[in-house]
Amino acid sequence: MRLAFVLSEIGSGLRRNLAMVISVILVTFVSLTFVGAAGMLQLQINQMKGYWYDKVQVAIFLCSDGSTAPGCATGPATPEQEDSLRKLLQSPAVAQYVNDFEYESKDDAYKHFKEQFSNSPIVDSVTPDQLPASFRINMKDPEKYEIISETFSSQAGVETVIDQRQLLERLFSAMNAASLVAVSIAGVMIICAILLIATTIRLSAFSRRRETGIMRLVGASKMVIQLPFILEGVIAAVIGAALASGTLWAVAHFFLGEVMSKQYPDTAFISPGQTLILAPALIGLGVVLAGISSLLTLRRYLRV
Amino acid sequence: MIRFENVTKVYDQKARPALDSISLEIDRGEFAFLVGASGSGKSTFLRLVLKEDRASSGAVYVAGQNVANISSWRVPRLRRGIGVVFQDFRLLPQKTVFANVAFAMQVIGKSRSVIRDTVPEVLKTVGLEGKENRLPHELSGGEQQRVAIARAVVNRPGILLADEPTGNLDPTTSMGIMGVLDKINQNGTTVVMATHDDDIVNEMRKRVVELKNGVVIRDEAKALYTSMIPVVGQSRRLRDASGRDEPPVVPPRAGTRAEARAEIRLAGEGQA
Q1: Which single residue of A21, A150, B4, B54 has CA 20 to 30 Å from A129?
Q2: Residue B243 is part of which domain span?
Q3: How many domains does chain B have?
């Protein structure tokens, strides 16, 4: 009975305040879309970092079947060549710059590749043979990359030495800047949303002050009086958050999935499914927003 | 049922207190009028009983419980034991008579079947049989006040507070309302009614508590209104009379009624 009563109160509140409720939905929608966009950029950065990025700085790729580098004239790197490279890495001249290194076989490389490019059609056309084996080196000082590069580039069986960080760092810093901008806009929009929800609840409380006054007099509990107002804000915010989640999914599906991944097939993009892990966070954030603003408002305008 | 012990209520430190060290007891099942000019502290008295305000000093007991010791989340329970009626009815305009009364039961979580049984019964008590489906604007003022009374007593409170319930009604209708309140009182509910209506007080011959400037200046059983209409020079005489504990002598005058009405209007404006 009480639940039915609260629900009917919510219904009438939403109807009476339709214009305000729609504006709350739109403002939370826009602000949470920006929050989500920042989250998506971070997800994308993680995706591009792949398996090795946080662990090592420099990769020494060994020759494989299709290698065209001058050092690979003799075909794929032999086990002997691999052993000599390993010895060289362990020799005092090199070891003083190296924290640690790992060998990635062709099969390992294929496994990691599959993980990183799981959302891309390219994964079906690649076989382990096409991927080079490599030594992945964790440098004591990443700036000393040149030393490793000079030492190993000319060795037999080495296709190329790459400082992965340098390649990606620029891109990542741009993306980080973009997510910072998105977060700042989101911050402003969230303030808007909180104030707007507070105003909406205040208007709603004002338009129903007769009812709430009578409810107080006949001894309705605080929960019965205030819950409809709180839930009105929460419902509007959750709808906004759901719209934002839908928008992010659509961006991942149509923009990244259909357009970008065809233009840049060698880049690992996040899948639409991955954006959905942002949805609970956004909805939670919407609920928290509505909760904060209703707490602030009800304490002042709807005392019991 | 209601006991005030040296209760003082100060709204503004610079002004005189709204209630000044009042001690008063109203027993279970009693019917008491609270009379006095506007600003004498009648409404403050009622607000303190409802715990709408907190006494500045002294203790207010309602049904044996000191309201100062009731935590804020238990205040609703206190208010369920008290029905309130106002001068301006305060009905919900878009709800029918039945729904207005049922509202008071819905919000405290009574089941639908209990509501279906109780509401018609209460409407019968206040004399509104057959008008369940009318909207408030389709009713006369007296009928609207009956709906408000029905709403106030539908949860069977032990106390009914009425703040000038006949202030908007003509004398005949007022007497009808008093009949309803009397009936409710006979069923065991304590009734406290703040009023300016001398005819009614004189007719009912119940206990009269007279307030002036926040002080009880008279508390008599089966009393008359004893014209509290302010006349130039009279106020001092009354204070002297109360100081000496002598009943004030007031000659019957014509035109009192009109003056009382004028004062009620002013009071209404003050509240709005």
Answers
A1: A150
A2: 2-43+52-81+157-271
A3: 1
Q: Is B91 left (phi over 0), alpha (psi -120 to 50) or beta?
A: beta
Interface check A3 vs B, CB under 8 A: no
> Touching check for B95 and chain A: CB below 8 Å?
no
Which element (helix H / strand E) includes A102? Answer: strand A98-104
Please indicate if any CB of chain B lies within 8 Å of the CB of A220.
yes
| pLDDT reported for residue A13 | 82
Q: How confident is the model at residue B132 (pLDDT cuts 50, 70, 90)?
A: very high
| Residue B240 CB coordination number (10 Å) | 11
**Residue spans in chain A of domains classed CATH 3.30.70.3040:** 58-164
What residues of chain A lie within 8 A of the CB of B73, using their CB?
221-222
Secondary structure of residue A161 in the 3-state scheme:
strand
Q: How far is CA B170 from CA A297, B48, B200, B256, B267, in A?
A: 42, 29, 11, 16, 17
DSSP sequence for B41-61: SHHHHHHHHTTSS--SEEEEE
Question: How far are the Cα atoms of A24, A46, A100, B82 from residue A163, in angstroms, in the given order?
Answer: 48, 18, 15, 80
Distance from CA of A301 to the nearest CA of B (A): 15
Give the minimum alpha-carbon distance from B263 to chain A in angstroms, rounded to a whole number: 26
Name which residue leads in pLDDT, A96 or B149: B149
Topology (CATH level 3) of domain A58-164: Alpha-Beta Plaits (3.30.70)
Separation CA A57–CA B157 (nearest Å): 79
- Asked whether B85 and B193 are in contact (CB, 8 A), the reply is no
Chain B nearest C-alpha distance from A267 (Å):
59
Contact B195, B163 (CB under 8 A): no
- Per-residue pLDDT tens over the stretch A12-60: 888 888 888 999 999 999 999 999 999 888 888 888 777 667 666 788 8
Residue B170, in any domain of the structure: yes
Where residue B35 sits, what CATH number does that domain have? Answer: 3.40.50.300
